[in-house]
Amino acid sequence: MTPNQACLNLLGLSRRARKQIAGEGLTLAAIRNQSAKLVFIASDAGPTTAKKFHDKAQSYDVPVIDTFTKAELSAASGNQRTVIAITDRGFARKMVAIMTK
């Protein structure tokens, strides 16, 4: 299994465990109140959206993964979303470890 596939599998698991927030407004609020431990931004997101979330995540010291397309994120999470936040520290730590190998 490739690292990308392993990460997408964990993304689906985090949704079933209810440790995920999907959507721009909710994700932005989660970053601000520091409940977001990791943020996924679709690689084909609009430049304004991508910049807004990269900047906000950087200012709150939240790691960002922007490797996957909207279609890949949607298939893994079951939601048609461009931005997804992971709220569980364990899931976030494992996903970052997989993607940085």
Automatic annotation (TrEMBL):
<dbReference type="InterPro" id="IPR004038">
    <property type="entry name" value="Ribosomal_eL8/eL30/eS12/Gad45"/>
</dbReference>
<protein>
    <submittedName>
        <fullName>Ribosomal protein hs6-type (S12 l30 l7a)</fullName>
    </submittedName>
</protein>
<keyword id="KW-0689">Ribosomal protein</keyword>
<dbReference type="Pfam" id="PF01248">
    <property type="entry name" value="Ribosomal_L7Ae"/>
</dbReference>
<keyword id="KW-0687">Ribonucleoprotein</keyword>
<feature type="domain" description="Ribosomal protein eL8/eL30/eS12/Gadd45">
    <location>
        <begin position="6"/>
        <end position="93"/>
    </location>
</feature>
<dbReference type="GO" id="GO:0005840">
    <property type="term" value="C:ribosome"/>
</dbReference>
<dbReference type="InterPro" id="IPR029064">
    <property type="entry name" value="Ribosomal_eL30-like_sf"/>
</dbReference>
